[in-house]
């Protein structure tokens, strides 16, 4: 298993390096003080795990993850426990380590990352059960991605709608498209993404998703019909 460290605090770098050196099956490929340096490295090198500090000088660790296409398993590190809760909003994050952390706690994070890496990416059963936790009003809500009916954007807010609940918080459709399965979710309007699994019918410029009437944007309609194999 390969890894890199993105951490601007030298003492924290040294601790993680020391812990990694104790694990014969984990290889450290690089250490970076800033996200922009790591970004260049990740553009041409594939790694299994990234140990990522939340507070970085040029961009926050959480915002940096959102810029990575097909991100590896992420283990967040932070001195602030409150940030750890927010970190679980992103499905690619497997664990968080609150500084200072012991070798035992570090090993637990490694094992979580190993489990994520070994999970078959092509397994339909696993994909349909992929989950994440949304931090809304200081409460973590479990969401099974395949159970999402649609997502609605309203200015800086996103509403995630499932059969049982609707959750609204600050985010963007662009960030969601990066984490959703493109074969399952379709953007039908500048403000809407729908789960094709729950599409009941299309009438004129509206698509019905479990009795929810959602507008179809003019620039999205032809691609939508093509994806759904409608001629």
What features would you describe in this structure?
- It is a single chain.
- The protein has 231 residues and is α/β, with parallel strands linked by helices.
- It has 2 domains: 2-119, 3-Layer(aba) Sandwich (Rossmann fold); 131-227, LytTr DNA-binding domain (OB fold (Dihydrolipoamide Acetyltransferase, E2P), Beta Barrel).
- The protein contains 8 helices and 15 strands.
- The protein has helices at 10-21, 35-42, 61-65, 81-87, 103-118, 124-128, 173-179, 221-227, and strands at residues 2-6, 27-32, 49-53, 73-78, 93-98, 131-136, 139-144, 148-154, 157-162, 166-170, 185-189, 192-195, 199-203, 206-209, 212-215.
- The strands form 4 sheets. It has a 5-stranded parallel sheet. Strands 10-9-8-12-11 form a 5-stranded antiparallel sheet.
- A hairpin with a 2-residue loop joins strand 8 (148-154) and strand 9.
- The relative contact order is 0.09.
């Amino acid at each position: 298993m390969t890894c890199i460290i993105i951490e601007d605090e030298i003492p924290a770098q040294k601790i993680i390096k020391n812990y990694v050196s104790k694990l014969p099956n984990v290889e450290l490929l690089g250490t970076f003080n800033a996200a922009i340096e790591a970004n260049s490295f990740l553009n041409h090198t594939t790694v299994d795990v990234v140990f990522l500090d939340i507070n970085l000088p040029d961009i926050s660790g959480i915002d940096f993850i959102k810029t990575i296409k097909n991100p590896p398993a992420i283990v967040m590190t932070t001195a602030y426990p409150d940030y750890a809760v927010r970190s679980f909003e992103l499905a690619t994050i497997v664990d968080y380590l609150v500084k200072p952390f012991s070798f035992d706690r570090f090993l637990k994070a490694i094992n979580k990352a190993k489990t994520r890496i070994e999970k078959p990416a092509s397994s339909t059963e696993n994909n349909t059960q992929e989950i994440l936790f949304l931090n809304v009003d200081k409460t973590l809500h479990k969401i099974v991605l395949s159970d999402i009916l649609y997502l609605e954007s309203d200015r800086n807010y996103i509403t995630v709608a499932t059969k049982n609940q609707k959750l609204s918080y600050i985010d963007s459709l662009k960030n969601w498209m990066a984490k959703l399965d493109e074969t399952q979710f379709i953007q039908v309007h500048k403000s809407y993404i729908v789960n094709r699994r729950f599409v009941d019918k299309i009438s004129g410029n509206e698509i019905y998703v479990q009795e929810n009437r959602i507008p179809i944007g003019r620039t999205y309609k032809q691609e939508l019909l093509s994806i759904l194999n409608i001629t």
